[in-house]
Amino acid sequence: MKKVIQWTVILSLVLVAGFFGVVLKATLFDREDGVRDKLRITAIMPHTDQGYWSSVTEGILAAEKDYSDQVNVRVELPQLNYNVKQMTELVNRAVAAKVNAIIVQGIENEAYLAALQKAAEAGIQVIFVDTDIEDFVPHLYVGTNNLETGIMLGEKLAAVTQGKAKVAILSGEENYPNLEQRVTGLKKISAQYPDIKFLRLDYDNYDALTVMNKYNLIQEENPEIDTLICVEGTGGQTLGSFYAENPGEFSHILAFDYSEGTIQGIRTGMLDGIVIQDTHEMGYRAVEEALNLFLNGGYSANCIYTDVKWVTSSDLDEEGHYVP
After folding, report:
1. Which one, 50, 94, 260, 309, has least CB within 10 Å?
2. What is d(CA 97, CA 76) in angstroms, rounded to the nearest whole number?
3. Spatial contact of 100 and 28, defined as CB atoms under 8 Å apart
4. CA nearest to 127, candidates 112, 138, 113, 114
């Protein structure tokens, strides 16, 4: 019965992809006046920063430049960072504007997903970057394989701690599948290394002040914890920027994402290492695949994983900079 359901879902995806392709071909390039229309894409980014989401946006705009005769992109941002209500309003606005594709982060929020479902029902491509919603049909995901990356991070944890650690995890917010998958993958290391114990999970709400408060609170409430793992970018960026040298409260800190702060943290010894995601490629491929559906009637795949790298002080140049 399960196989029948799986094949039914796959067939539905194929039919929907074909439908999108036919509709777009009929409405974009076949105008009676001979003017060449472009694929209209709205990219709704949750945050403006000097690192992760800025790099995703740069990738999106780079693809628009490379395909300028075929694609037009509008980048939208909520007034408040990660404000899901405002992002939902931006989705509704894009649907009303009858765009051809929407690029968004996947977030487990009922109103947000309902708005995206209306977009899909209106024939608009829904493309998730950074965070996937696996049971949202139809859609494309372009980004990190977060479960496998969590497993990789667990292996790095075992290596730097020699398989013995008392660990606190600092995440962003609840109900973000990408972060939950990273934590799930990370904790799998305990099966191989029983002396690695995960004692608490805290959330920083993507806020630098909260990061510092949690950093101090963990030490006060659980002084036995010797290792901190930040599974999203704000933690490592904040700690790396704040401390000119490692104060030694934690023996090891592992973090996520490229920024000036995290590279400084590696340089000073505050951070053992960071996971760097290919955020530029996420944005670029999202636009490329939206166009691919139009031109060829389908995506390269329904799930496209981008690369990740583990970066430590040994990867910095003589001046302490990281060059990809």
Report:
1. 50
2. 13
3. yes
4. 138
Residues 6+ positions from 154 with CB-CB distance below 8 Å: 185, 186, 187, 188, 189
Q: Which residues of 69-106 are buried (b: 16+ CB within 10 A; e: fewer)?
A: ebbebebbbbeebbebebbbbbbbebbeeebbbbbbbb
pLDDT of residue 105: 96
DSSP-assigned beta bridge partners for residue 105: 129
Separation of alpha carbons 285 and 287, rounded Å = 5
User: Could you tell me the CA-to-CA distances from 21 to 64, 124, 258 in Å, in that order?
Assistant: 19, 11, 36
Beta strands per DSSP E along the chain:
39-44, 71-76, 101-105, 125-129, 140-143, 165-171, 196-203, 227-230, 252-256, 273-277, 303-305, 308-311
- Tell me the three state secondary structure of residue 43: strand
Q: Alpha-carbon distance 165 to 177, whole Å?
A: 26
Domains of the chain, each with CATH number or no CATH: 2-145+279-307 (3.40.50.2300), 146-277+311-315 (3.40.50.2300)
pLDDT digits (tens, 9 = 90+) for 54-90: 999 999 999 999 999 999 999 999 999 889 999 999 9
**Which residues 6+ apart lie within 8 Å of 164 measured at CB?**
193, 195, 196
Angle of helix 233-242 relative to helix 260-268, nearest 10 degrees? 60
Tokens of 322: 């990281």
Task: Assess contact for 217 and 179: CB atoms under 8 A.
Answer: no
Quickly tell me which residue has 């140049």 as its tokens.
317
Q: How many whole angstroms separate alpha carbon 140 and alpha carbon 201?
A: 30
Residue 74 CA, chain-centre distance (Å), reads: 19
The residue to which tokens 């609840």 are assigned: 174
Q: How many angstroms separate the CA atoms of 276 and 264, rounded?
A: 14
